[in-house]
DNA sequence: AAGTTAGGTGACCATTTGGTCACCTGTCAA
DNA sequence: TTGACAGGTGACCAAATGGTCACCTAACTT
């Protein structure tokens, strides 16, 4: 399996995306802490975190018996750069900003 | 199934990512034209294109009996914005640019 | 009108994937 | 040092996914 295969497969599951959302909101959480936010057993969450880790979307640091999880944004940016060139990026961000502006009013 | 579920599921398959690569290189191709680039039957390719279309990653325009396919970058940008804030974006792009600079030398 | 070309549909099968469980290792606290 | 706590492993099962095929419709060509 290639690197980018791992990244996209990892992102394909809603529980894993929710874990990334949690880490985006606040980094450095343990398995047990993350587990309490999902309706799933610890084993399920651990399995998902491992998939995210192997994809490089999450990096971990051990601290005693705890394992702290951090979000790594680099693979996400690389997805962006694969299909959006600098020129297109300007148009797309302008469109999305416009959409937000309209939704606020 | 939610919208973003469709997008991520669509991106999870290497053949579909390759189709996006092809459309990124050149837009507006037909099924038959795309089919010739993959080692797969027409039915397989058609199925993949439908998944991409339902995810909004590809938009189509009919022209007689032909169906032209175009890449839509907006969902890709939204993935980026979900986990990379403006502040982090600066660091990440700087890191990636640095990586490219180093690799050239 | 007849043949050809572009594309669509529903069924089918092999493989992968998400989630759980029984059981195990390592670390901290009283 | 004994128990509680944080996490890991391998097997297992139900459900989803990738790909093919037989068969179909619609549009262009001569």
Automatic annotation (TrEMBL), chains A, B:
Protein origin, superkingdom: Bacteria
Name of a matching Pfam family: HTH_20
CDD domains per record: HTH_ARSR (cd00090)
Annotated ranges, domain HTH arsR-type: 1-91
InterPro entries: ArsR-like_HTH (IPR011991), HTH_ArsR_DNA-bd_dom (IPR001845), WH-like_DNA-bd_sf (IPR036388), WH_DNA-bd_sf (IPR036390)
Entries under SUPFAM superfamilies matching the protein: Winged helix' DNA-binding domain (SSF46785)
Protein name in UniProt: Helix-turn-helix transcriptional regulator
High-level lineage: Bacteria, Bacillati, Actinomycetota, Actinomycetes, Micromonosporales
């Amino acid at each position: 399996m290639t690197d980018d295969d791992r990244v996209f497969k990892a992102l394909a599951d809603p529980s894993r995306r929710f874990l990334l959302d949690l880490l985006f909101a606040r980094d450095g959480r343990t398995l047990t802490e993350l587990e309490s936010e999902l309706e799933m057993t610890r084993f399920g969450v651990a399995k998902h975190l491992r998939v995210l880790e192997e994809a490089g979307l999450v990096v971990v640091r051990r601290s005693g018996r705890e394992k702290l999880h951090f979000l790594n944004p680099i693979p996400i940016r690389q997805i962006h750069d694969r299909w959006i060139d600098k020129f297109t990026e300007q148009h797309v961000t302008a469109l999305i900003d416009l959409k937000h502006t309209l939704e606020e009013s």
